[in-house]
Amino acid sequence: MAEEIKTNTEAPAAPAPAATTSAPTTERHGKPPFGKKRFESRRKVCKFCADHIDHVDFKNIQFLKTFTMESGKILSGRITGACAKHQRQIAKAIKRNRNLAILPYSLPKK
User: Fold this and answer.
1) Is the C-alpha dihedral spanning 67, 64, 66, 82 positive or negative?
2) Helices (H), strands (E): how many in the chain?
3) Reduced to 3 DSSP states, what percent helix, strand and coil does the chain have, rounded to the nearest 5?
4) Residue 81 and residue 46 in contact, taking contact as beta carbons nearer than 8 Å
5) 62-99: buried (b, 16+ CB within 10 Å) or exposed (e) per residue?
6) Is the CATH number 3.40.50.2300 carried by domain 47-99?
7) Digits of tens for pLDDT over the chain (110 positions)?
8) Torsion (CA) 96, 101, 107, 110 in degrees, nearest 10
9) Are 33 and 68 in contact (CB under 8 A)?
10) Which residue pairs from 66-69 have beta carbons closer than 8 angstroms and sit at least 24 positions apart in sequence?
11) The model's pTM
């Protein structure tokens, strides 16, 4: 078998001009270059702690509906921004309302 030798018929490319910035342009192990920042979301603040509410009232139906999905699921603390203490109180109040038939367990299937 004869090996084919490829020759480069194009003229060599001109070298790129030197970078004028002092920051290196290479990535550092998957992180962006030094000058660029990633989008950082702000940490959610617990509504109850901010308003100094000690106890979640199960009788406040409109307020508790904001912590449930349309399907009836309870939203997680990561989404609601509530601290662990108040998230437990929210879950307990929603479950109490469901038991009293104030809030539905889920929507009826179509």
Assistant:
1) negative
2) 4, 0
3) 25, 5, 70
4) yes
5) eebeebbeeeeebbebeebbbbeebbebbbebbeebbe
6) no
7) 566 666 666 666 666 666 555 555 555 566 666 666 777 777 788 989 999 999 999 999 999 999 999 888 999 999 999 999 999 999 999 999 999 988 888 877 77
8) 160
9) no
10) 67/94, 68/94, 68/103
11) 0.59
Type of residue numbered 49: C
Tokens of 7: 């020759």
Largest CA distance in the chain: 88
Type of residue found at 64: L
